[in-house]
């Protein structure tokens, strides 16, 4: 009999101790479960912060504050307000939809084979030439002609671009536009670029931005970005397509009246 009583006391103590550790804090008799704190910490650490005692202290303060305010809102009957209830229902739906989509993505990831197939499809449609060019953009034609004259006298294209080009993005790189498809530029610029020979300068080219002096550095067959460069974007796109189809299938099977 005495052993039974000791066992009962031990179980009671164990349960009360477990309950104490299961709550991060108690507010007006309401326990805040520690898994709620763990969830908050997980969200923050996934964004790069470290799990530290200071972080958990801040999380605890936030949870306590939220619990106090929630209790006050309930005391005032705001949880019975129709608009509040609607917002709570919509928030619940959003959380569930997010959980469903996350579960689907984990169970149906985009495979390496699917990614490479899509990359090969895109690459097969890449054709034509890519141009490596520089340009200097100025306000009027007279200035453009004066710059061309200076360049023919031996002044460096890069130096003039840095000093005078209105295109500040390329100016700091000596006017360098990198490897580009002509379709990336306005038609006037693209046509002038395609008409240039390697190493040559254009006449002043007027566009909506001003007057350009273009220098063609090199030409090559278009090859497009590498697989590793576009893989993250392809992954997002294909995964999005899978999710969209999944959602459409579910909606299509639903009985909507």
UniProtKB/TrEMBL annotation:
Entry EC number(s): 5.2.1.8
Signal sequence interval, chain numbering: 1-22
Gene Ontology MF terms: peptidyl-prolyl cis-trans isomerase activity
Source species: Chitiniphilus eburneus
Keywords for the protein's UniProt record, in alphabetical order: Isomerase, Rotamase, Signal
The family this protein is said to belong to: Belongs to the PpiC/parvulin rotamase family.
Catalytic activity: [protein]-peptidylproline (omega=180) = [protein]-peptidylproline (omega=0)
PpiC domain location: 128-218
Protein name: peptidylprolyl isomerase
InterPro entries: PPIase_dom_sf, PPIase_PpiC, PrsA_foldase, Trigger_fact/SurA_dom_sf
Domain of life: Bacteria
Gene3D superfamilies named in the record: 1.10.8.1040, 3.10.50.40
């Amino acid at each position: 009999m005495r052993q039974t009583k000791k066992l009962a006391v031990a179980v009671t103590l164990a349960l009360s101790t477990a309950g104490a550790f299961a709550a991060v804090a108690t507010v007006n008799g309401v326990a805040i479960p520690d898994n709620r704190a763990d969830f908050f910490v997980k969200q923050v650490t996934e964004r790069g912060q470290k799990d530290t005692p200071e972080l958990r202290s801040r999380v605890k303060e936030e949870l306590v504050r939220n619990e106090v305010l929630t209790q006050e809102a309930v005391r005032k009957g705001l949880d019975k307000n129709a608009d509040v209830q609607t917002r709570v229902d919509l928030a619940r739906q959003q959380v569930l939809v997010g959980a469903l989509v996350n579960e689907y993505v984990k169970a149906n990831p985009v495979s390496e084979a699917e990614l490479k197939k899509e990359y090969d499809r895109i690459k097969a449609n890449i054709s034509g030439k890519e141009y490596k060019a520089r340009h200097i953009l100025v306000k009027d034609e007279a200035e453009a002609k004066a710059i061309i004259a200076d360049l023919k006298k031996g002044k460096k294209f890069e130096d003039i671009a840095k000093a005078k080009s209105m295109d500040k993005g390329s100016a700091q790189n000596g006017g360098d536009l990198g490897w580009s498809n002509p379709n990336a530029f306005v038609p006037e610029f693209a046509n002038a670029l395609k008409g240039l020979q390697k190493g040559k300068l254009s006449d002043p080219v007027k566009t909506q931005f001003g007057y350009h002096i273009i220098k063609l550095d090199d030409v090559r067959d278009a090859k497009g970005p590498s697989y590793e460069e576009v893989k993250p974007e392809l992954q997002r796109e294909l995964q999005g397509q899978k999710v969209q189809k999944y959602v459409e299938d579910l909606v299509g099977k639903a009985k909507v009246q």
